[in-house]
Structures are given as structure tokens and as C-alpha cells.
Amino acid sequence: MTNLNDLYDMQGQSPWLDNLRRDWLRDGTLASLVAQGIRGVTSNPTIFAKAISGQDTYDEQFTSLIATGSVEDAYWDLVVDDIVDALAVLRPVFDSSGGRDGFVSVEVAPALAHDTEGTTVAARGLHERIALPNVLVKIPATVEGIPAIRQMIAEGRSINVTLIFSLTRYAAVIEAYLSGLEELDASGVTDLSGVASVASFFISRVDTEVDRRIEAAADGDADLLALRGQAAVAQAKMAYALFAEAFSGPRWEVLAAKGARAQRPLWASTSTKNPAYLDLAYVDTLIGPDTVNTLPDGTVADFLDHGTVARTVDTDLAGARRVIDQLAAAGIDMEEVAEVLESEGVASFAASFDDLMESLETKAAALGTR
């Protein structure tokens, strides 16, 4: 047994891997991590950009694909093949958990982040193309993404809602999930257990932005400077309280009686960006039932080596609220922080996608196919 096994068995938190590479699928690395307790996999355009441009394991298939199609079509073929292979590795986890875990996430094209209809069509298309029960299609929680999320849930499709940075937007995500389930129920579907969803609440990037604002505003204020590195976990604890409230009571009980699964909070961006902070600052502090933590492979290794398995996600909620209140009193608006981070997140994924397309065009030209 490992710390990852204990995380799930003792605390009800599912550790997922925040990375996917074809060589890991071929050499057994992913299977080994699953054997050590990893229960799911997430991917995004940046992850695939690093994987495809950073190794030659894709070259043979890419060469074959671009002989008859476009570079972007070839990209999606490469991605879908990796997702399908990863789904096979995780399928035993999906089956043994009764559909609770064993998921692999794939994201719609980042250029669609502010296009409701385009996102809806793309998410539906990925579900139909992959057509396996343990795939989660990722849709960003932009204003335009929220209606697409609701529509996909109403169609009975499983969704990973990504790029959540604020409590206000998280509340909108929860509402989209609940109302989507209610529409699905009203359509005549009697068993709602086939729909799964997680809400990916980003963590470390919040501290990066808030710390920057603290340092700009502090002017030597020791009390304000002492709040560095606290905002992200404090906000996440408040998000967990919001989750616990939303997935209880009469409205939820009606859906749960028909098999509906709670939309679990997923802690994303949990590697430590500031070297002054502990390497597991965003892991050990957010452990609790009905949650997921997506860990980059380096953070997986750190947690296996010295992680602490103890329930922490709902400890000192009053202290968490006090941190957010103190930041507000200092003029640091968490909603404004979230707007900046969402914009940066969407732009970052789009840039990764565009850079990869450019590098694949260059590779295609070098191969004499363009």
C-alpha cells in the first residue's frame, strides 16, 4: 500500500495524474502509477504540446496521417489515440469503483473558450468519437462555457469543468450541473448514474497572482505580507464548504434518489510554483472525502515519498474566511484575481495549441508533405 492508496481508502480523496505521454502508455509507466494508487488522468493542450513535440514516438503515425489530411486533423487523431489507450489502462479502476473513478479527460480546442455553440458541438463530437464510459470531456468555466456544460449534462454526457478560479463562478458551475441533471431527468431518463462530472478549481495560480498583489500593496505592512501563500487554500476550503452545502438538502436528494452522482471538486494546478513554499503545500492541505486532486508526476513522487494522509479540507473554515476578508480589506478583490487568471489560462492553452500547430506544420514540411 502507498500514500496514494491511503488517500482514497482512508480519506475518500481520489489522486489523479495531471500528465499523459505516449511513451508512458507504451513502457508501462502509467500502468505502474495506477498500481501505486493513481485513479484517473487529466490532459490539456499544454500537456499534449509537450508530449507530441518532445518525443519521436508520434512521428511515424503523424507522417502517415498528414499524407492524407490536415495537420490539425492529424493532431486530434494523435490525441484521441492516446486518450483511448489511457482509458483502457484506467478501465479496471472505473469498473471496480462502480464508475466513480478511472476517468481520462480530454479538452475541447482552446479557441472555443468563448464560443458556446462551438464548445457544445466539439464536446458532443469528442464524446461520440471516443464513446467510452470513462472519458470526461473538459469544458472551461467561462461565461460562454457554462451553458455548454449544462447542455452536455442534460444530454447525459460526462464533463470535467476546468479553469475555475472563483467562488462565484464555481456556484454557476454547480447550478449548471444540477439544472442539467434535472433536465435529463425530465426527458425521461430514469437512471442518472451514467453521468459523471468534476469541477476543477485551480489552486497554485491563485497564490501567484494574490502574492503579487500583496507585495505591491503591502508597503511594509507585516500583517498583509503574512498572508502570502494563504489565499489559494483558503478559497479552496470555502469552495469545499459550498460543495457540501449544494450537494445536500431536498433538491439534491431528489436527484440522488435517481442515481445522480455528486459533482466532486477537483483541485487542479497543485504543484508549488513558489520555491519558498513546501512542495506539498497544495496537497496535504486539501485532503477530504468526495474530492479529487490532480497531481503532476513530480508531485506524485513527492506525495509517495513524504505526503501526509489526514483530513484537512474542512479544518479551520473560519480561518479561511478570515484570510479572504483580510485580503478584501486590503483592496485585493478575489473576483478580479479570478478574471485575470481565467484570461491568462485560456490564453496559455491557446498559445500552446498554436505553437504546437506551428511546430507540426514545420515537421510536415521537413518530411516533404507540405
Short note summarizing the structure:
The protein has 370 residues and is α/β, with parallel strands linked by helices. Helices cover 56% and strands 11% of the residues. Strand 4, helix 8 (145-154) and strand 5 form a beta-alpha-beta unit.
Order of helices and strands: HEHHEHHHEHEHEHEHHHHEEHHH
What is the 3D shape? globular
- Count of discrete structural domains: 1
CATH fold name, please?
Answer: TIM Barrel
Which percent band covers the strand fraction?
Answer: 5-15%
Overall structural class, as computed from helix and strand content, comes to: alpha/beta
The count of β-strands is: 8
**Biggest sheet descriptor:** 8 strands, parallel
Classified in CATH, the superfamily is Aldolase class I
Intertermini distance: 52 Å
- CATH class, named Alpha Beta
What is the rounded Rg?
20 Å
CATH architectural group: Alpha-Beta Barrel
- Give helix % range: 55-70%
Strand order of the largest sheet: 1-8-7-6-5-4-3-2
Low-confidence stretches: none
